[in-house]
Amino acid sequence: MVLDINTAFPNADKTGVPMTEETTFPSNAPDNKHLHTGELATLYRISQVLATGVLQRQMLLEVLDLLDRELGMAGGTIMLLSPDGSELMIEVAHDLSEKGRQATRYQMGEGITGHVVQTGQPISVPKISQEPRFLNRTRRKRRAQQETSFICVPISIGRNVVGALSVERPYDPEILLEEQQRVLSIVASMIANDVRARRQAKTQQEALEQENLRLRNELEDRFRPENIIGNSGAMREVYRAIHQVAPSDTTVLIRGKSGTGKELVAHAIHYSSPRANGPFIKVNCAALSENLLESELFGHEKGAFTGAIQTRKGRIEEADGGTLFLDEIGDFSLTTQVKLLRVLQERQFERVGSNQPRSANTRIITATNRDLEKAVADGSFRQDLYYRINVFPVFLPALRDRKDDILLLADYFVERYSNRMGKDVRRISTPAINMMVAYHWPGNVRELENCIERAVLLSTDNVIHSHHLPPTLQTSDATDTFGVGSLAERVSLYERDIIVDTLKRTQGNLAAAARELGTTPRIIRYKVTQLDIVPERYKSRALDRRTPQP
């Protein structure tokens, strides 16, 4: 496609030369009317080369070739400042070896080129033999007895000089170097615009890479096994299993009741594996019908069924090089089980509506809350698939079987939802803790999280009390745990809760706590000793929310 010069340069003057805010020329340069037709045509061809968007070095070499071939400007050299701005390095040079290009350096202000970059003003030298500042570091060969002229112009982005463009030509007294300098300044302006665009694109790319790295690090911090809350013996067994299986491509079956955190374990396995840089794709098999599930997993071809208006990749293909997490695999139909078995055994599958076998390097992690052994016995789950996915089972305990972790989990959720809701909830009262420990948690960790979210929302002070918890937790069994025995025992628990709360607000200062409670320091010291309270643990400036308090 050939463009008219006015179309190519909408901001051009009458000669068609592009004019931008960053295009600056020396005040003594001749007007554009002195540009010849051949020079305009060359400028137009250069603009087309710069518009191709190919590799920068290749494109600049083509520009230097055009200057040499069309305008007789030989020995073209484009030098750019180093990233730290300390020296000039050759980006491209006409008729110069790669070794010579890499070896040539100029300091700021050194030689003609260094002076042009330092001052931002072009320099034209009619005879280089009479110019002591011409250092000739490129060591180009020149014909004996032939005088050479030299022109060097700055490459500027706004007011910042980022490099220099220089050329040589045989000395000719009839050629006006000022006019040649003018043409070269226009070319330098075009190059500057390209350099600016590429630097902006590079900056944006680096910013995106940094953001991607930051997000990936956040995911790794969030999902690595060390960040799964729980120190009970059952959870330590889960951590050991994750560390054992993560480095391999072994198929994993995560088993546990609903709400125990199976997806969190799948994340931990993926981000601890060599596939951590690959995608992590999850599919909830229970939420899709048989036909939709098959299309979701394997993809489909255009026209394979009603509504298939275009070809679509399946989740297995999308997870190529990464991990596919199949949640609730026990709900697979027998037909889909056969196709999944082929994927696990041969790493091959076919899209819906296609007979072409496809392959994908995808690790598969499965999870279920169903009794697969019973499903195999009654024929609703294939035995061969069961043995294929049950290579390395990981069992997640129910929350009622890891009661040592309830306080850690509750404290973690208190901190999360306090920050999210902009509240300063610092702790959970002793009666509320006893209620949570006594509860059987049929919904497991998910139910605990929902309870804490509700409690933080309802809390009007810095404490979660028992009446902030849902009615399901306020059972007679739970109430009895913190009200066992006589009235004196109940009062002691209540007193302890009040004193601990006050010591936290006063940072362990017994005298300040006594004043707040309207009593004397002697009585507070007596109660602290009687109720086995340690004031020193509350003397820090801010309460550590991750440490459960009595």
What key attributes describe this structure?
44% helix; flat; 3 domains; Helicase, Ruva Protein, domain 3; 6-stranded antiparallel β-sheet; disordered C terminus; Beta-Lactamase; 550 residues; disordered N terminus; alpha/beta
Describe the protein.
With 550 residues, the chain is an alpha/beta fold. It folds into three domains: 5-201, Beta-Lactamase (2-Layer Sandwich), CATH 3.30.450; 224-397, P-loop containing nucleotide triphosphate hydrolases (Rossmann fold, 3-Layer(aba) Sandwich); 401-538, Helicase, Ruva Protein, domain 3, CATH 1.10.8. 44% of the residues lie in helices and 14% in strands. The chain has 20 helices and 17 strands. The strands form five sheets. A six-stranded antiparallel beta sheet has the order 3-2-1-6-5-4, with helices on both faces. Strands 8-11-14-7-15 form a five-stranded parallel beta sheet. A two-stranded antiparallel sheet has the order 9-10. A hairpin with a 5-residue loop joins β1 and β2 (87-93). α14 (406-421) packs across α16, α18 crosses α19 and α19 (510-517) crosses α20 (521-530). The chain is flat. It starts with a helix and ends in a 20-residue tail after the last helix.
Q: Low-confidence segments, ≥5 residues, pLDDT <50?
A: 1-34, 476-484, 541-550
Total beta strand runs: 17
Please outline the major beta sheet: 6 strands, antiparallel
The oligomeric state of the chains shown is single chain
CATH structural architecture of the largest domain: 2-Layer Sandwich
Compute the number of structural domains: 3
**Major sheet strand order:** 3-2-1-6-5-4
Shape: flat
CATH topology descriptor of the largest domain? Beta-Lactamase
Radius of gyration: 38 Å
Strand content: 5-15%
As a percent range, the share of helical residues equals: 40-55%
CATH homologous superfamily of the largest domain, by name? GAF domain
Global structural class:
alpha/beta
Arithmetic mean pLDDT: 81
- The termini sit apart by 79 Å
Note the total helix count. 20
